Amino acid sequence: MRLIFLGAPGSGKGTQAAILAKSQGIPQISTGDILRKAVKEGTELGQKAQEIMKRGDLVPDDIILELIRERLAETDCKSGYILDGFPRTLEQAKGLDRMLGDKGIQAAVLFEVQSATLVGRITSRRVCVDCGETYNLITDPPPPDGICLRCGGKVIHRQDDTEETVSNRLAVYEAKTAPLIEFYEKKNKLFRIDGEAPVEHVRDQLFTLMRRLGS
Ligand code: AMP
């Protein structure tokens, strides 16, 4: 199963990718998580990406494509994967097609959420720096001591989840990533999910879709 999860920041694609990846025993490949790890470790990639991410802009396509090429070559990707937050530009989508050749991806799943909902979700999101577990101040608050329930790591407010950066991230999504909807629609690979619903309902829609796709 080779899937792309598409959607604006805060659309819930990361949460749903984690759920499906666990149930199917395949990796969730989040370029955002890979980049955040590189920033935390202070690697060359991290140093290049840090300021770009803080502004909510996109890291250059060639860097992202190389990172994906290396990740997809790892053995845990043999029986499939969920790409979460990649591709984000037409150039990345075309690069992925070139990389995969005939086998291509099976489906691009689009999580549709209105922008008013997105802003609220992103600014109230909190994440664990170690395992990436997400919390929401309103619907699923982190423990008062700020320690992650899953791994004991520190739960933080991401620097790019602030109100100042969110509007740029949403504008970047509209300008650079939304054109991918038509790109995958033309290939008959686009499947839409109503991402406004509570997590469990979105999960149910996703599992129904997976059964339809035959996995
Ligand atoms: P995310 O965790 O997916 O919201 O990504 C956080 C930030 O990482 C984005 O705002 C971008 O700066 C960067 N990023 C993540 N994935 C990509 C990608 N596929 N292409 C370019 N930049 C990315």
Please tally the helical runs, counting DSSP H or I stretches of 4 or more residues. Answer: 9
- Which architecture of the largest domain per CATH? 3-Layer(aba) Sandwich
Largest sheet, if any?
5 strands, parallel
The CATH class of the largest domain, by name, is: Alpha Beta
Could you list the spans in which at least 5 consecutive residues all have pLDDT below 50? none
The name CATH uses for the topology of the largest domain is: Rossmann fold
Strand order across the biggest sheet? 2-3-1-4-8
**Mean pLDDT over the full residue set:** 95
| H/E topology pattern | EHEHHHEHEHEEEHHEH
Would you count the extended β strands for me? 8
User: Which hetero compounds are present in the coordinates?
Assistant: adenosine monophosphate
Class from secondary-structure proportions? alpha/beta
Strand residue percentage: 5-15%
Mind explaining what this structure looks like?
With 215 residues, the chain is an alpha/beta fold. It has two domains: 1-7 and 25-105, P-loop containing nucleotide triphosphate hydrolases (Rossmann fold), CATH 3.40.50; 113-194, P-loop containing nucleotide triphosphate hydrolases (Rossmann fold). It has helices spanning 13-24, 31-41, 44-55, 61-72, 90-100, 115-123, 163-177, 179-186, 199-213; strands at residues 2-6, 28-30, 81-84, 107-112, 125-128, 134-136, 155-156, 190-194. The strands form two sheets. A five-stranded parallel beta sheet has the order 2-3-1-4-8, sandwiched between helices. A three-stranded antiparallel beta sheet has the order 6-5-7. β5 (125-128) and β6 form a beta hairpin. It is globular, with a radius of gyration of 16 Å. The mean pLDDT is 95. The structure holds adenosine monophosphate. Adenosine monophosphate binds at residues 9, 31-32, 35, 52-53, 56-59, 64, 85-86, 88, 92, 160, 169.
